[in-house]
Amino acid sequence: MLAALLASAALTLVPPARAAPPSRHTAPFALHPPPPSAPPSRRSAAPRMLLSKLGVGLLGAGGAIAWAAPTTSLPATPPPDETSAAIVRAVGAWVVCLASLMLAGDAGGVAAAASRGLYHAAFTVIALVPAWEYFDRPKGSQIGAAFLFVALGKLIKKGSISPYVSPAIYTLLGALIYFTPKSTAELYKVSKPLSETAYSLLSVYGGMIATCGVYLFCVARSLASQQCFAAAFAANALLAFSWALTKAGSLGAPKVPALLLGALSAGFAALGMS
């Protein structure tokens, strides 16, 4: 009996056996809970980007048509106005410039996009020299402006000046032309008198230049491509709505084409912001 009690006491004094340590060959992930599952991926933005680029393509096509056949894009104001047709061609050139900038996007980085913007401006100015010959506009100032744009573009690319110089030039020059079309005509030394329709289209000409500046400013801010597209389309919509609501009636031109253009641009802008 005593032996049994001693044996029982001895067993109670023996510490319980520890669990065997895991083998060093055990996979590490077996010792830890599984990692949390990855959050569900966002809906792909590829379809929206594709639609936005379709909008840019339509924009560029419209500009090309205005350049090649300006009378087809001329507001239906009697009688036919040759000076207005000449300015429509100039507007079309800047529309093509905007579309090309939007398609190039921020490839190469912000500085590359900003410098490319000024290179495109220089090319557009040179392309417009024959168009402005209708008004006998002096060529020296146009060629000088093109060289200045190229020089500033090179300085931006080297990092010598801020990329914001590019959108600032576009926006300031475009705004000045938009708000002062008659003073702009005097500055350009046009030899032919402009009709009220031509003056209104000269404002649109400035508005398109400023719209290029809006897009380049968004690129300089490193915004997403969709946001940059949305800003440019919104500016284009505002330009179209403004002309339709403030100019078309007094000129005897139909409002519907400009309103449709504004609505289409607003739709693409909304697509980019969604």
The oligomeric status of these chains comes to single chain
Low-confidence stretches: 1-34, 37-42
- Please state roughly what percent of the residues sit in beta strands, choosing from under 5%, 5-15%, 15-25%, 25-35%, 35-45% or over 45%: under 5%
Radius of gyration: 32 Å
- The gross shape turns out to be globular
Largest sheet: none
- The ordered string of helix (H) and strand (E) elements is HHHHHHHHHHHH
> How many individual β-strands?
0
DSSP helix fraction: over 70%
Amino- and carboxy-terminal Cα gap:
88 Å
The chain-level mean pLDDT equals: 85
- Class computed from helices, strands and strand pairing: mainly alpha
Number of helices: 12
Keywords: Membrane, Signal, Transmembrane, Transmembrane helix
Explained architecture:
With 274 residues, the chain is mainly α. 70% of the residues lie in helices and 0% in strands. It has 12 helices and no strands. Keywords: Membrane, Signal, Transmembrane, Transmembrane helix.
Helices and strands, with pairings:
Layout: H1 2-13, H2 46-68, H3 82-104, H4 110-127, H5 129-132, H6 139-158, H7 165-179, H8 181-188, H9 196-220, H10 225-246, H11 248-251, H12 256-273
Helix pairs in contact: 2-3, 2-12, 3-4, 3-9, 4-6, 4-7, 4-9, 7-9, 8-9, 9-10, 10-12
